Amino acid sequence: MSIDHRLSAEHEELRSTVAEFARDVVAPKIGQFYEQEEFPYEIVREMGRMGLFGLPFPEEYGGMGGDYLALGLALEELARVDSSVAITLEAGVSLGAMPVFRFGTEEQKRAWLPKLCSGEMLGAFGLTEPDCGSDAGGTRTTARLDEATGQWVINGTKCFITNSGTDITGLVTVTAVTGRTPEGRPLISSIIVPSGTPGFTVSKKYSKVGWNASDTRELSFVDCRVPAANLLGEQGRGYAQFLRILDEGRIAISALATGLAQGCVDESLAYARQREAFGRPIGANQAIQFKIADMEMRAYTARLAWRDAASRLVSGEPFKKEAALAKLYSSEIAVTNAREATQIHGGYGFMNEYPVARMWRDAKILEIGEGTSEVQRMLIARELGLAG
Question: Are 209 and 364 in contact (CB under 8 A)?
């Protein structure tokens, strides 16, 4: 009996719609936003109207009633054209809205999800700190419950936080130490901090190598007070909650990386067909043909990996190892494809007017964000029973 891995009619329609949007709306405009390091509010609003920010959420909260596979398809097609737009969607859904959906009370879901699903509001995920990146369990931000006022008092700093300082950012969910176990281990909890809360300061934008049309900032909290009801999920379970969120997010990042890798193929094919050297198109040279064939092979394999992990998530099966495998492979081949695409373009590949220049700059962070390649290898080894 054969197994059909092709998309359903609904998923294929979504993929085609987003591909058309990326080609006709994003591609003509994003270069200017990228060069000027401006957040593309107009494009994000259109993505909201299309329902992309609500793809994996139930209709009762303003979502589209889709699944994580649908989100991955949208991310891949967007990233074939531009990663800044894709990461804005990924962070808005996987890191901004998903914690509220997975762990929030019914009241929290109804208060926040409709605007997050419509794209009217963006959420952010405050995990990383200046002194603890991969070691997220080393969180130093603290939150003390003031019994007299019924408020959490938050102090600390978060860094590299996507979507945290836009004009439409509505909340940041932060991890903070809220107590200690009898053995002295920190109890880490998750707390929703609305934008504009006194004591919550957003820094100016980072000067980044890539993702220049996305928003990334450092956040500081100085005696920042929010209601006790802003606790997200069970007290002391924040670290475990965010590990789950990161497992899911790795599938989304894998889809994004696959899109970038495929975009490198697209651009290289077009260039190889029209660029002539020594009297014929460079695509007639076997050296170029083999480069592009290898690039296509990598993108194809990465696509199989992230879709398999997404299918396991959607069907309720264990997916931690598969998500790590997909994220590791797709991020590393995205870097390779971006390098090869730049080489194929020659000097033009070093010019910002060519999309491969953006792809080259955008690719490296994929091996770092939402778990470095080294962390993915640790996770895979642990799932194989090799870790001590």
Answer: yes
Q: How far apart (Å, rounded) are the C-alpha atoms in residues 89 and 68? A: 13
Q: Which structure tokens are listed for 37?
A: 């390091």
Bridge-based pairing state of the strands 122-126 and 169-180: parallel
Tens of pLDDT, residues 209-245: 999 999 999 999 999 999 999 999 999 999 899 889 9
Task: Please count the other Cβ atoms lying within 10 Å of the Cβ belonging to residue 299.
Answer: 25
Q: How far from chain centre, in Å, is Cα 99?
A: 14
Let me know: does 345 contact 376? Beta carbons within 8 Å: no
**233 Cβ contact list (under 8 Å, min separation 6):** 103, 104, 189, 190, 241
| Residue 136, token pair as written in the block | 């997220």
Rg (CA), the chain: 21
For residue 384, give the amino acid letter: L
pLDDT tens digits, 43-75: 999 999 999 999 999 999 999 999 999 999 999
d(CA 353, CA 31): 7
Opening angle at CA 236, ends 230 and 241, nearest 5: 80
Instruction: Please give the positions annotated as active site.
Output: 370
The amino acid at 305: A
Arithmetic mean of pLDDT over the chain:
95
Q: Do residues 104 and 342 make contact, with C-beta atoms less than 8 angstroms apart?
A: no
3-state secondary structure of 134: coil
Angle at Cα 220 formed by Cα 217 and Cα 221, nearest 5°? Answer: 145
Tokens of 39: 């957040």
pLDDT at 322 over 70: yes
Tell the burial category of 210 from Cβ atoms under 10 Å away from its Cβ (0-12, 13-18, 19+).
Answer: buried
Whole-model pTM above 0.85?
yes
